[in-house]
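Researcher: Sequence recovery benchmark, item below. Answer with residues only.
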């Protein structure tokens, strides 16, 4: 786990009475032997890896205020007028962290948590048999806290993936990972809750499996498996006031992981399908209104209360309004907001769904065509360039508006390669290459191909965070 890991913890008399009855009593079948989890552990442990992450030192600009107030006086006296606030550049030290990952394919695709690898400049993956490989990032998704990385290897022990929707409360599960850098650690527990939302990160998608299997620092990105050793979740966080296990662990279900990993591998980014609403559990809304002294009768006590409908979203187009209560999606009952989020994650923009909702105590249905964050049904894609060593994606409309930029390609991940050698870093925005505006991934692809055909094979890159042009040999 990285340093910023969020990481982010019957009576004898009664029995005698029953035996004294003359009529037979129907009893439920009770297992004669305790459940054996050894097969599950042995079957899954080799599919869980240890990930060491190195983050290089960086120069960062921070706001500084003179604690003695001298800058207030002299700043005003000399007309600088900065109110005592200054900008200073600081050098952060090189850092290392560790976490876990799960092998999904025999050729080296590994799923882990976004917070484990998001700041990585270098990653080393250690298998359970002690073989080590350098890894690279394929894609990151902060919203679900998932990441896909890749090592160059064959014949790896890929884990079998099960459908987390089939998990039942009280079912036995194992958490496998590398807590405190202790490799290949297995802990057991049960499924304590499903579709759990914690509100830990604003804007995140949360529909966790809650378990009492011990999850500690270093377990992040590891496997939560069922009694057959099949993957049902990716360990993500613990709930603790001490930073260590205290009985509450949370894992991202495979029902979310499957679609996210598939999108990262195919597109380099997640194709997020949105309803275009904000809301809460009906029960939470009713409780909040009661605290205000108001009585609410929505015609149901279960479902999702719609607080707001986005004017450019799918729900608005289908006629949903604030105050409606969504009770089903595609015929499946929805009682928690986490369940709705989990269902939306499995869809892509352009998919059609049927929503059942209550308005004025009457049941209605509507068919919606889901959209992405830009309000369209077009797939968004990033470009991963092997030789240049970077993953790129176009700025979305929100980013362009906040940065006051008309276009640009964001470096969403960078590793050893020509761009890194030229001094470009993750988070920079490519504006022009060889004087061509970088408005799309097609622009980048074409200018690189043209440079490869050129005799000098040089790319002149202009990035938003750098005012100089960077020469780059494209080989």
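Model:
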């Amino acid at each position: 786990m990285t340093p910023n890991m969020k990481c982010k913890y019957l009576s004898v008399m009664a029995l005698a009475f029953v035996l004294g009855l003359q009529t037979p009593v129907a009893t439920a079948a009770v297992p004669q032997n305790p459940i054996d989890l050894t097969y599950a552990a042995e079957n899954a442990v080799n599919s869980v890896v240890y990930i060491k992450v190195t983050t290089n030192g960086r120069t960062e600009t921070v706001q500084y205020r003179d604690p003695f107030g001298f800058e207030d006086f002299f700043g005003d006296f000399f007309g600088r007028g900065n109110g005592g606030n200054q900008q200073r550049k600081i050098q952060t030290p090189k850092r290392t962290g560790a976490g876990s990952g799960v092998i999904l394919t025999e050729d080296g695709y590994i799923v882990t948590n976004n917070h484990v690898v998001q700041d990585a400049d270098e990653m080393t993956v250690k298998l359970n048999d002690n073989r080590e490989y350098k890894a690279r990032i394929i894609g990151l998704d902060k919203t679900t806290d998932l990441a896909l990385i890749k090592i160059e290897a064959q014949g790896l022990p890929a884990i079998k993936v099960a459908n987390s929707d089939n998990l039942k409360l009280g079912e036995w599960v194992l958490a496998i990972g590398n807590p405190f850098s202790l490799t290949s650690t297995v802990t057991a527990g049960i499924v304590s809750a499903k579709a759990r939302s914690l509100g830990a990160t604003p804007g995140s998608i949360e529909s966790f499996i809650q378990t009492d299997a011990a999850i500690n620092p270093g377990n992040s990105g590891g496997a939560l498996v069922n009694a057959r050793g099949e993957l049902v979740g990716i360990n993500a966080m613990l709930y603790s006031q001490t930073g260590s296990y205290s009985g509450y662990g949370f894992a991202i279900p495979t029902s979310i992981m499957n679609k996210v990993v598939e999108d990262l591998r195919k597109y380099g980014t997640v194709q997020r399908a949105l309803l275009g609403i904000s809301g809460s559990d009906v029960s939470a809304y009713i409780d909040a209104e009661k605290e205000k002294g108001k009585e609410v009768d929505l015609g149901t006590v279960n479902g999702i209360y719609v607080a707001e409908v986005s004017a450019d979203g799918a729900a608005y187009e289908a006629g949903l309004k604030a105050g409606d209560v969504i009770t089903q999606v595609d015929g499946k009952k929805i009682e928690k907001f986490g369940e709705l989020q989990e269902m939306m994650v499995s869809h892509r923009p352009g998919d059609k769904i049927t929503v059942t909702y209550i308005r004025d105590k009457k049941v209605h249905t509507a068919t919606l065509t889901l959209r992405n964050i830009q309000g369209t049904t077009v797939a968004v894609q990033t470009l991963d360039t092997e030789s240049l060593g970077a993953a790129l994606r176009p700025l979305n409309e929100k980013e362009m508006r906040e940065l006051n930029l008309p276009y640009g390609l964001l470096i969403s991940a960078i590793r050893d390669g020509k761009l890194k050698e030229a001094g470009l870093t993750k988070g920079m925005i490519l504006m022009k290459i060889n004087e061509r505006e970088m408005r799309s991934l097609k622009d980048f692809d074409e200018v690189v191909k043209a440079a490869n055909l050129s005799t000098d094979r040089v790319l002149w890159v202009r990035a938003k965070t750098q005012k100089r042009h960077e020469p780059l040999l494209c080989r």
